[in-house]
Amino acid sequence: MKISLCMIVKNEEDPLERCLTSVSDIVDEIIIVNTGSSDRTKEIAEKFTKHVIDFEWVDDFAAARNFAFSHGTMDYIMWLDADDVLLPEERQKLVKLKQSLDPLVDAVSMEYHCDFDDYGNVTLSVRRTRIVKRLKNFQWCGAVHEDLFVDGYLYDSDIVVTHKRVSKTTDRNLKIYENRLSQGKAFTAQDVFHFARELHQHQIYERAIVFYLKYLEDENNSVENKIFTCNRLADCYYQIGDKDKEMAYTFKSFQYDTPRSEACCRLGYHFLEKNAFKNAVYWYKQALEVPLPESSWAIINQPSRTWLPHMQLGLCYYRLGLYDLSYQHNKMALSYRPQDINILHNLSVLEELLEQRQQLRNFLT
């Protein structure tokens, strides 16, 4: 199995060398398509490959990726973004995959750890197709948040690609979508989905709702994306103060599959705001106990199944006067977020309360 790594880049002088260093000795060919860099990106790329090709940017990521893929010459084509990296353990997995992959496989997916908190915990993970058989000529679609559509014999690997974000949020993607709308270009279902997410990210909640609802109208969309959309709709409605619709779309997500931890945390917070602490406890405990989705392609919100429900359970049990349980859950939250000043403060207060309670018991006995 020989691999062409095909990438598109623009002004990536900071992360590019780190990315290429993590994979250059494993792949067999590197194709770098430059879409208009004004910094040292090309110079850095040329340290790793002679195949650095310019491409005139046309506000279409799929067009750029398809152009990059067209220059690959090996059996398989792999893609990464410049701010992605393969950590040492994942490098070894890729080496093993090259040695053992069934030649009948048409496409290989990898887990993508795409967002992290300040303590290095993964906060968002998804699965994406990363390697495809060149002769299948699979194509990218979508001007923004492009998707690689594949079929045939697919293999879900255990390799993880880590995203090390270096750039700040911009309105670049939003502007591309707005321009396409103004030009009367048709939006696919995926365009609608990703445009809604861009609007949501930029806090344009009412308009995001319109496009999320439009996406839900299409019954052919995947179950995982429908669940994600319901949870995003719930957040939009929460942001604009419509609690009834927030709850309606939280529960609507249950129609598609078993409850997800993110929805359980939302319900827990709904009752917490009402000071209905026992109800809140129920839902936060559900967030910890619900199994991971069976689909490996589910979008996983990690905080909602780790430190967040523990921290909120700590608060609920504190308000219920159950200081032992509050302490236990704050300790669990701290295991995910060491040195978190809020959790450390909670523990300090609880330790004092528990000590006072123990002294009272000792006095009474």
From TrEMBL:
Q: Taxonomically, which superkingdom?
A: Bacteria
What Gene3D superfamilies does the annotation carry?
A: Spore Coat Polysaccharide Biosynthesis Protein SpsA, Chain A (3.90.550.10), Tetratricopeptide repeat domain (1.25.40.10)
Q: Which CDD domains match?
A: Beta4Glucosyltransferase
Which SUPFAM superfamilies does the UniProt entry name for this protein? Nucleotide-diphospho-sugar transferases, TPR-like
Concerning InterPro entries, the annotation shows: Glyco_trans_2-like, Nucleotide-diphossugar_trans, TPR-like_helical_dom_sf, TPR_rpt
Q: A Pfam family this protein belongs to?
A: Glycos_transf_2
> Is Transferase one of the keywords UniProt gives this record?
yes
Per UniProt, the keywords (alphabetical) are:
Transferase
| GO molecular-function terms, A-Z | transferase activity
Q: Work out whether the entry's keyword set contains Nucleotide-binding.
A: no
All copies of domain Glycosyltransferase 2-like, residue ranges: 4-134
Would you tell me the protein name for this molecule? Glycosyltransferase involved in cell wall biosynthesis
